[in-house]
Amino acid sequence: MAPQRPKGAGALEKKTALSPAPVPPRSGELYAALDLGTNSCRMLIAQPQGTGFHVVDSFSKSVQLGAGLEKTGRLSRGSMTRTVQALRICQQKLRRNKVRRMRLVATEACRRALNADDFIRRVHRETGLKLDIIKPQEEAQLAVISCAPLVSRNTENLLVVDIGGGSTELVWIDLTEVPRGDRPQAIMRLHSGFQQAVSDLPAARVVDWISVPLGVATLRDQFNDVEDDAARFALMSWFFEENLADFTPYHDTQPTEKFQIVGTSGTVTTVAASHLGLKRYDRTKVDGLHMTTEQIDRVIRSYLALGPAGRRADPRIGQDRQALIMSGSAILQALMRCWPTDRLSVADRGLREGLLYAQMSADGVLEDGEF
């Protein structure tokens, strides 16, 4: 499957409204966001608080929904059963917290699977949950707004990268026309679409975006037959870079000190935690961390030196991530090789946070001001 992108840099055919609000929310009402990806099922339940939100409940489980999808083109019976069991737990949490305003989405595995519609109907029948299969454009859009609080006021060109299980979304944003103090808020205003209506407010301009149908699970599956660990890693990294050829900034970017790349994914946060030497993961230390290319490469080299058996036993990586960390690292290394920066901003946030921000922004329940 070829990477998906609009025709012409930043030219989107339709404006996507993420979360209509037909009924005004009550004060203090809870919101929920569920992200069903190729590898994991994750949910957040949160309450608006100032310019952000307070998480009151959460859920995360590796369900491997996309296991075997590369070979068969279908979701397997076992992966669907595992996922439905996880979604039952989510449904119980939603009921217990009396959540009425929610957005529940599925991404690349369900976009590609031939039997995705049957699976969505089964989920509704057995759990009562209605999942939306979102398009790559909306997935990229949500990743961008989730990272708005991490955007530096000195940033003039921003690249947001979301490395998923089945795909990787990249969005390049020009902030040169936005006053420095308004740049994070300008990113947040993209919740209404990459192609915004004309207004008096300074606008962030989306130069280009792309959805590469290669994530940590799909890239790993394509190179499973290569036995040598280092050779497989090198092939994955260069193969991923080849899939960026249609992304306009890949060819046109000039070195600049006012460029920022924000990476959001389990791969990025795992590499950051390994760099910090954390024995137990701590989001407060990882989210917003800045890492240099040299620091990232040092961690990746340590993963390679461990070998498959060593990575399985390494507590820094964890059982859920060990089978995917090298394919994710190959993507991360390719990205750092392509663009004019030696620093990466680490974001422990993504689609769920974007879904919450989008719903709350559309409902007008977030305050203006600093994040």
Q: Could you please describe the fold and organization of this structure?
A:
With 371 residues, this protein is α/β, with parallel strands linked by helices. The chain has a domain at 138-351: Exopolyphosphatase. Domain 2 (Nucleotidyltransferase, domain 5, 2-Layer Sandwich), CATH 3.30.420.150. Helices cover 40% and strands 19% of the residues. It has helices at 69-72, 77-96, 108-112, 116-127, 136-146, 183-188, 216-222, 229-242, 248-252, 266-276, 283-286, 293-313, 325-338, 351-363; strands at 31-36, 40-49, 52-62, 101-106, 132-133, 157-163, 168-174, 205-212, 259-264, 290-292, 343-347. The strands form 2 sheets. Strands 8-7-6-9-11-10 form a 6-stranded mixed beta sheet, sandwiched between helices. Strand 6 (157-163) and strand 7 (168-174) form a beta hairpin. Helix 5 crosses helix 14 (351-363). It is globular and about 55 Å long. It starts with 30 loop residues before the first strand and ends in an 8-residue tail after the last helix. Mean pLDDT is 88; it is low at 7-22.
Task: Please describe the topology of this protein.
Blueprint: E1 31-36, E2 40-49, E3 52-62, H1 69-72, H2 77-96, E4 101-106, H3 108-112, H4 116-127, E5 132-133, H5 136-146, E6 157-163, E7 168-174, H6 183-188, E8 205-212, H7 216-222, H8 229-242, H9 248-252, E9 259-264, H10 266-276, H11 283-286, E10 290-292, H12 293-313, H13 325-338, E11 343-347, H14 351-363
Parallel strand pairs: 1-4, 4-5, 6-9, 9-11
Antiparallel strand pairs: 1-2, 2-3, 6-7, 7-8, 10-11
